[in-house]
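Repro:
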Amino acid sequence: MKKIEEILKKQGIWESLPLQKDLRFELNISNDSMIFFIMKGSLSLKVNDLEKFTVLSGEMFLPQFDSSYEITVLENSHFLICYTPMEAWYSEQKWIDDLFLDDNSTSGEFFKLPIKKMILRYLSLIGLYLEKNIDSQVFFELKRQELFFLFHYCYQNYELAQFLQCIISKDIKFRKFVVVNYQNARNVQALAKLANYSTSGFIKKFQKCFNESPYKWMQRQKAKQISAEIVSGVKSLQEIANEYKFSSYQHFSVFCKTKLGAPPTSILRKNIDKVRENTKR
């Protein structure tokens, strides 16, 4: 049985995924969430090796954190997937809080929603943009924010409370604090102090919300930032190494190779080649 990572390309915010009948794969959500829109076909879900559910064409679901899914494609199908990391929901904090003003409660069970006609039309355009290879993260980020607005417009609060229960259950306010403030902290101890936690209490809370240690998470964020700096081409590699306080360029190169899969010179060269290729189109 394949794992979802072997199927997904993860090249951006949205992904178009045609799948063959009888394909089986495992899905585990530990950090960033993703919304599955079944545009064509159907699938069977086995959740935590217990309950089974069927999701049909014209339905959508958001897998819950800390749950395992065994997915079987029941017929030739086409999915659209929207990656929705916790950070993407921060601008919707007020709206998410409002979901519980009317005593809306969540069951913790698997929940799916029908895709309303307005959202289906919106998704058909997303599919067209992907087919035409539009390459703009800023554009697709705006389209994701539009999706959140359409959710708010098209569904009742009690439906959204159930659908988004994993977003709420992971303590969005704590996560927002971490994401906004971690760059101001030298290490985990300093970040815990900023959050008014003891170090042990902070680590426990962090692991509950992020499903990994704060040290590992901070290293991963550092790697993402460095990757973005290299790709932008604004600063020299030595300037980046100095800015992130590496003791030597060699140490910086080893960090990139370990965390990003390639030394900084290779990452930069690959991006230059990609830009040239896009320019020729």
